[in-house]
Amino acid sequence: MEQTMNKTDRPPYGIIAVLMIGAFIAFLNNTLLNVALPSIMKDLDVETSTVQWLTTGFMLVNGILIPTTAFLIQKYTVRRLFLVAMGLFTIGTLIAGIAHAFPLLLAARMVQASGSAIMMPLLMNVMLVSFPIEKRGAAMGVFGLILMFAPAIGPTLSGWIIEHYDWRMLFHFVTPIAAVILIIGFLRLKDKKEKVNISLDFFSLLLSSIGFGGLLYGFSSAGSRGWDSPHVYLTIAIGVVSLVWFILRQLKQDRPMLNFRIFKYNMFALSSAISAIVNIAMFSGFLLLPIYVQTIRGISPFDAGLMLLPGAIVNALMSPVTGRLFDKIGGRILAVVGLTITTVTTYFFSRLSFETSYMSLVLLHAIRMFGMSMVFMPVSTNGLNQLPKRFYPHGTAMNSTMQQVSAAIGTGLLITIMSNRSELYGKELAASAMQKMSGQPTEAAHSEMQQQIALEAMLEGINYTFFISAIIIGAALVLAFFIKRAKSEEEKQDETSSSKQVVNKLAKT
């Protein structure tokens, strides 16, 4: 691919456009299903713990396949990978739309995930190869617009469809669009690639699958099962052992499946750490706000989705702006300002009450997402900029993998913190209420008191978890001060060569 997309050529806008539309549909699908889960439970007669596998299974397949994308991108052409990825996604969507049994729906969802897992690393790699560093921020900003806007409209669109149609319409809506994109890709995508003589180490693939799969499943299950469940600590332990074995094996290989040597580049390592920390804390907003507005405040799911929409749109629209700013001023100022805003707004979310107004929530969430928009794309792009071209596939695969793992850790960690704090505070409130109570309360009064204690305890748990999230983001803010504008080895060599040419010309004159 480097032969057809080096930085001296005009970027392949046709290829990028097709890839972006495909990625948009794949990202949109990630959030479409969340609102539909209650309807699926009722229609297919499954419990909450079962239906959650539609999201957990999707995430697991992503976590297992994404580490292999570094190998796939080096081995095969963009055209071939896109057609396989979009083909799998389309087939999975089609089957899901006609599924009348949960196992078939789950299998279709996993087929979808196998296609979706390839899309993001593939698109990011094409963007890195196609644009020089001085224009890469603006290009990544447009990519960020696609990445953020699709999940932004997902819940609202899903809520409207579920309100008027059967949940299967979510898949029927996406299927023809995915099929058209697949046909366009088949007709329009053309790129050449020299034959690459590399083979996949299947034992590394096994270790990677067990390692990342174990971590993702373990941390995702911690919120519902508890940390003392064998499902949680055994799968995490197996995942850690397999992952350490996988890393050691990769470090000994000349052509590893996923190259962990890229962490020797300090700006890439720093960007990965900041992104992972922020991603862990970011899920406080996605997880806790819907619980607060629906369970404690009694706001409808559709209105809860609308509450989050302005912030998501702000985040999406800011991506091209922050991309251009990144090209001009670099990543440090953007990251410091963005993380400061995010830390402060997250702290304010730790002071929620039963009287907090709906508009205050909308505004605070929008400002928080405005801060977030200055963090992820500039920080990750700065880190990738330091890598030599041969490491781009490994860098994009590593970033996507870290995103999946940190999201699972964030989900398990934050739900656990909220549950533990709520339980502890609930016991304190119950003990205090019993001491103040005179005489034996009626059954109705006792039931009302328990309900009020449960709501107050949950509110305390949510506030405390937001406070912990603010501290976590504060740690990322400290790290952001160490960001420097990154340059790859090729860029440094070009600058040295240019400097020598200037010196030689001056010497001749």
TrEMBL record:
Species of origin: Neobacillus driksii
Domain Major facilitator superfamily (MFS) profile: 15-488
Family: Belongs to the major facilitator superfamily. EmrB family.
Top-level taxon of origin: Bacteria
Transmembrane segments: 12-33, 53-74, 81-105, 111-131, 138-161, 167-187, 199-219, 231-248, 268-293, 299-317, 329-349, 361-380, 401-419, 464-483
Keywords recorded for this protein, A-Z: Cell membrane, Membrane, Transmembrane, Transmembrane helix, Transport
KW Transport (keyword) present: yes
This protein's name: DHA2 family efflux MFS transporter permease subunit
Signal peptide residue numbers: none
CDD domains reported for this sequence: MFS_LmrB_MDR_like
Subcellular location: Cell membrane
Ranges where the record places region Disordered: 489-509
Bilayer topology: Multi-pass membrane protein
Any Pfam family hit: MFS_1
